[in-house]
Amino acid sequence: MTIKKGGGTGPHCLTSVMAVLILLFSLLPLPSSSAASSAHPSYDGATQFCSLAAGEVAAPERREVYDGGRIIDISHRFHESMPSFESDEGVGQFLWLPESMKNGSKANGSVVKLHVHTGTHVDAPGHFFQHYFEAGYDVDTLDLSVLNGPALLVDVPRDKNITAEVMEFLHIPKGITRVLFRTLNTDRKLMLKKEFDSTYTGFTEDGAKWLVDNTDIKLIGIDYLSVATYDDLITSHLALLENRDIIIVEGLKLGDVKLGIYSVHCLPLRLLGAEGSPIRCILIK
Ligand SMILES: *[C@@H]1O[C@H](CO)[C@@H](O)[C@H](O)[C@H]1NC(C)=O
Ligand SMILES: *[C@@H]1O[C@H](CO)[C@@H](O)[C@H](O)[C@H]1NC(C)=O
Ligand SMILES: CC(=O)N[C@H]1CO[C@H](CO)[C@@H](O)[C@@H]1O
Hints:
alpha+beta; Glucose Oxidase, domain 1; 2 domains; 7-stranded mixed barrel; two-stranded antiparallel sheet; disordered N terminus; binds 2-acetamido-2-deoxy-beta-D-glucopyranose
């Protein structure tokens, strides 16, 4: 019997707490082949149960929620076959390891090359307005007080794009400033497919204009790579970004999240001069 050490609580690791319980309550003798014997003698009995063979590291745990579900990660993990706008090939290689310990470097040092509108990401006004781009309205200028605060998660009707009619139907009260729109994109798991799908759900031009004219929404979250439908790609973005007071977060992971009000926390990188950035977004109950 091998018992591995690690931060996780996966099936191959006995946590210290479990080990203590076993110590306290087990009437059976300890397994003689326990890895405990390889642990440093100064460690206490409980942690000895989780010791590792030399050089072995338990696999890390990858989580979608933390603290028993209180914190929900609504960002997608970056990987090579995540979708890329208008491509069938996915994102492809974006991570390299030019400094490698296997090659004699003192540490591993990776390099990333990524289109800034990849995966879960934010758009700055310069994305669709050349004069805003030139004036410096990059992701570093986005208002963190818009990107962080109470947010409403809503489901939109699955049989339509987000038109003015749909926006009206949703009855989002005045005073609500952050809304995450869950659409058919989530049901279709489009963010999990390598091939770009142009039939995704998004805002039509009239839907975007309706939102600007009739709501207080300043943070829009959506569950595929673009907030705007493919047919209204430019016009919807223009309507939403023109006043520079609305922030668009795209490619959110909204499956398995209950409808309701959360505290949203989204933080873009401070990429000077970039009109978009990967963004980490979480919801806190
Ligand atoms: C190690 O160095 C060689 C020669 O420079 C290079 O071709 C190889 O890709 C490197 N390997 C890694 C893992 O960085
Ligand atoms: C949304 O619009 C796209 C075209 O931009 C279309 O392919 C798609 O079918 C529409 N979605 C719905 C649910 O009507
Ligand atoms: C932490 C990290 O990046 N480790 C990498 C170090 O480099 C080797 C290859 O030489 C990788 O296998 C590790 O994953």
